[in-house]
Amino acid sequence: xxxxxxxxxxxxxxxxxxxxxxxxxxxxxxxxxxxxxxxxxxxxxxxxxxxxxxxxxxxxxxxxxxxxxxxxxxxxxxxxxxxxxxxxxxxxxxxxxxxxxxxxxxxxxxxxxxxxxxxxxxxxxxxxxxxxxxxxxxxxxxxxxxxxxxxxxxxxxxxxxxxxxxxxxxxxxxxxxxxxxxxxxxxxxxxxxxxxxxxxxxxxxxxxxxxxxxxxxxxxxxxxxxxxxxxxxxxxxxxxxxxxxxxxxxxxxxxxxxxxxxxxxxxxxxxxxxxxxxxxxxxxxxxxxxxxxxxxxxxxxxxxxxxxxxxxxxxxxxxxxxxxxxxxxxxxxxxxxxxxxxxxxxxxxxxxxxxxxxxxxxxxxxxxxxxxxxxxxxxxxxxxxxxxxxxxxxxxxxxxxx
Length: 402
Fold this sequence. Notes:
Layout: H1 3-138, H2 140-158, E1 164-166, E2 178-180, E3 189-193, H3 197-205, H4 209-233, E4 244-247, H5 251-260, H6 262-270, E5 273-276, H7 278-299, H8 301-359, E6 390-394, E7 397-401
Parallel strand pairs: 3-4, 4-5
Antiparallel strand pairs: 1-2, 2-3, 6-7
């Protein structure tokens, strides 16, 4: 082969050499890869067996955890059931206690409601009575009767029946509501009840100065008329006192008179007509009762003085009798003293007789002649009051006395 042919065939040779080199390199690489793959497969097998063991351990741990979880769940379920039972018992007891207390509270509430209903009925009845009272006071005659009844009740509660007369006719033909019997001076005092309610209500309902002025004038005119009527009718010279009393059965009207109508009050003083309310009437009648009691005491002064004289006479007689009794007691004491002296003498003489019997012995008498009738009592022995004989000493001898 010539050089030119070699030069022309060089590229193919180069390609062939390159192909051989590539094949060699590929084979070499594949062989290395196979060895690496085998090594890796062996490592993978070892790793797989480790994983299997780890998996078994994990499964064991999971099983143990499952068993522990089941035990814990059972314990928690039991504890929860116990707690629920305890809570249910407490709630049941609380509900029962609450039910009892609620029942008691409802009972008390029912009682209070019954009382409220009763009070409501009473208020309703009272409202009806107030309406009836207003209707009653709307009539002048009924209003006058109301004042008379209130006056009569006050007088009856304070004064004795002998101290007053109701609706007594005076010598001038007039009849006051009450005549209080007083001694002269001042004499009997006439009392008449007046109730100027209409003009007072108009004064209270006034909303402006004009209405108030008009109502005040009407109220003043009514009061002046009542005062002058009482002064002209119920003050009778020589029969009654020089003054009379006008009874106002309402404290509010009485207060309004003394607050707004001072000139009317001054006129009543000038005409000797004293305006009183139920409260001041009580005080006035109590004063009258004290005066009447003092008058009765004065009227009975002579009787009391005579009784005191009889009492002093009886006390003098009692003193004389006590003095006589004292003298009798003194004589008795003196007699007892003398008796005591005689008793002491008898005892001393008995002691002497006893001493003589102990010291001397005389000849024995025959047939009992000449023996002593009594034996000497022991020293200090008391004498008997029922002895058959008395001992006396005559010339130093002992002789029996009948």
